[in-house]
Amino acid sequence: MAGLLAIVVALMVAYALRHLMFTLNRLFGRQRHPYLDIDVADWPMVTVLVPAHNEEAVIGGCLEALAAVDYPPHRLKIVPIDDRSTDNTAEIIRQCQARHPARIHPFFRTEGAGGKSAALKDALAHAEGEIILLFDADYVPSRALIKRLAAPFFDPEVGAVMGRVVPSNTGCNALTRLLDIERSAGYQVDQQARMNMRLVPQFGGTVGGVRRIAVDAVGGWDDAMLTEDTDITIRLVMHGWKVAYTNRSECHEEVPQEWAVRVQQVRRWSRGHNQVMLRHGLRYLTSRRITTRERVDGIMLLGVFAMPVVLLAGWLLVAALYFMNASQLLLLFIPLLILMSYGTLGNFAAFFEMAVAVLLDGNRKRIRLLPLNLLGFIVSLFAIVQGFLGAVADRITGRVQVWDKTRRYRLAEAAR
Amino acid sequence: MTGVAGAALMLVAGAFVMLGVPFLPMWREWRHPTDHHALAVGRDDSNDVDHFARRLRHATQERVAREAWSAFPSRAGTPDHGEIIAAGPLVAAVQVHCTRPLRVAGDFSAPSGSTFDSLLVDGDLDLGTDSQILQWARAEGHARLGSGTVAVRRLSAGREIALSRECTFERMSAPRITYGNRLARPRRAAGEGGDLDPTTLPGATRQAPGLVRIDGDAMLPAGLRVVGSLVVGGMLHVGEGARVCGSVKAHRGVVAGRGSMIEGAVVSRRDIHLRAGCEIGGPVVSEADIVIGEDVVVGSAGRRTSITAESILVGEGTVTHGTVWAHDVGVVWGA
After folding, report:
1. B226 close to B242: Cβ distance less than 8 angstroms
2. Higher confidence at residue B80 or residue B131?
3. Which residue, among A171, A175, A195, has the nearest Cα to A363 in the 3D structure?
4. Separation CA B278–CA B303 (nearest Å)
5. Which DSSP string corresponds to B119-156?
6. Pairs of residues, one from chain A and one from chain B, whose beta carbons lie less than 8 Å apart
7. With CB atoms 3.0 to 4.6 Å apart as the test, which of A195, B65, B215, B239 could cross-link to A245 if both were Cys?
């Protein structure tokens, strides 16, 4: 048991070092933005897919923003995907199409498997050109965003690109403020550091895009996956493609405003992420198309939503060793147990990352909320464990995933 | 025992206090938020090279109609504040040192050694040798810079930028940018020697339709044509007169030989060398430096593109179309 505990601690230390490295790289390392300066080009044909299921509150704003972007009109096609909505989503889409008939070409999906991944797979038949960009319906892109997301695809090795997601409802309540800090750390430090160090930035399924031939070459979208973004990231990277992260490609999104919604979201992420790990982990480790650093970082990325399970296992092991009176062994591990305390309360490196991210964004006083992130961490811990167990059960039983979307909060758009 | 119990109690109490201290400012910020605004994401956020020029134009449009100067004051010096506006063409007879934004509603020329902070010219701009532009300059017509002129930050033109030898630049944008004296050398067609299947190259595998990956270095023989894009793990040499009908990326550098042609992008983490006479479709992106030889063409009138690197050295006779952006320094060199 002490040996198992040592393994747990070693894993915690590895993740702590990883996040510490990311933070130090953002502070002191060379920042890579190789495609940011491509402001004039023969821009490629781009199709923007916007999956929507009961999104009447937000879809209009998203489509109007997309219709107004600075991109050659004859090289841009916007395809909102109405996936059997039962509210006014379809009507709002039709109204947007009437206002922008040259740019907006809806796809009204009436059959097929449920879920975002399945909807995207069907919608690809309506896509034109090599580049497919994805936006969730609650996003409001800026005028320059499409060019910034398209620019990395001039690099023939880039298979996917990811922009930065920024919460728009930050000040709503304590939860949204905590999530804002988390998102800031995840993008401003984590993703950018992985781009700087040529590791594995993750394609997040929105505010990003893929190269069509790359997706086809690795087997296409898998509509059986709960987190199709993680799935496509891993498959692209292990077949030799790169994922580019562009920190300046920012877009507002809504974060959950209720804990129940947040727990549901985290559980889905955990279940989907671990599903990808169970399916592709070994193949990824043994891929001959990736560099050593990509191999290590990619496996750690896949393990992110398994680490809370490891942490809980560590707690149980410590308790078991205590009650078994293995005090002599415990004494040997005192320094390691101190480190376990960091892991118990939340990996110190993760909080350091959050603090630096907040400062890099030009904010200050919201760092004071960091102790409150402990609460968020505890809540997420159990949601993630639930998701992990769900993924394991799915793998064993062959159960098919059912995608549940995150609730929206913006008021319904008035019919125009 | 009492002493030990007391010490233990103090230790526990001290630990609780230390753990609890951070929660005080947390509580205050939570109950009375002072920093809770969403990160601003400008809807019209743009890194446009002409951003400042447009702003100056907007700020001075009304005054252009009212004020009319036909020449600079004979004495060097400027007003303490505000923009300087010439409502018509302007020819500076003496060296100018202007630290205020200057707008000229017509053509403008200034002699050698002149210095400008920011400059908006509605016609053509002609600067003598060894002049300096400290922030930005925009000419709606042609911008011609004498040798040794330093144009840091932004320089743009509506029609053409013509840089003489030893001009220094940072970020430029124009439909056409020429460097030094035009060299009237005949161009030979590239890729006339026949097609090469890139999968026959050592270390090559087909990664996707139209894309071949090559492990290690790669050498494309002179005069041959490759259809499709290449990703090279090492260094890529494109032989003289060879042609790539696609884009190329090489992790350890690219050398495009004399007279070669790459129709798409050229991307590398290391240096990119474009030897004399080659033609590149673009963009050209290096995370290190780009050395462009003489008489190179990047982009075209109908397909403007971008060139970006830390440092960019450009040989005489080269023509580029679009944006050239050197983060450190760009220099026009000549033999």
Report:
1. yes
2. B131
3. A171
4. 16
5. EEESS-EEE-TT-EEEEEEEESSEEEE-TT-EEEEEEE
6. 148
7. A195
The residue type at A154 = F
E strands of A216-350, at which residues?
242-253
Phi and psi (nearest 5°) for B214? Answer: -125, 120
In degrees, rounded to 5, the angle at the alpha carbon of residue B16 between the alpha carbons of residues B14 and A10 is 105
pLDDT of the residue at A78: 97
Nearest-angstrom CA–CA distance, A194 and A22? 7
Q: Which of A41, A167, A364 sits opposite B283 (nearest CB)?
A: A41
The structure tokens listed for A71 are 């991109």
The residue written with tokens 């696609």 in the block is B246
Per DSSP, the residues of B11-63 read HHHHHHHHHHTTHHHHHHHHHS-SS-PPPP--TT----TTHHHHHHHHHHHHH
pLDDT in tens, A243-282: 999 999 999 888 999 999 999 999 989 999 999 999 999 9
Q: Search chain B and give the residue with CA nearest A215.
A: B208
Please state the pTM of the whole predicted model: 0.91
Strands B204-208, B211-214: pairing is: antiparallel
Which residues on chain B are in Cβ contact (under 8 Å) with A365?
Answer: 29, 34-35
Decide if B16 touches A, using CB distance below 8 A. Answer: no
Cβ contact A220:A121 at 8 Å: yes
Inspect the interface and report whether the beta carbons of A251 and B41 lie closer than 8 Å: yes
Q: Is the pLDDT of residue A402 over 70?
A: no
Band (A416; pLDDT cuts 50, 70, 90): very low
Which of A243, A288, A237, A298 is CA-nearest to residue B203? A288
Contacts B215 to A, Cβ<8 Å: none
Is residue B106 within 8 Å of B90, Cβ to Cβ?
A: yes
Distance CA A217, CA B208 (A): 6
Rounded-to-integer distance, Cα B34 and Cα A392, Å = 43
**Residue A16, amino acid:** A
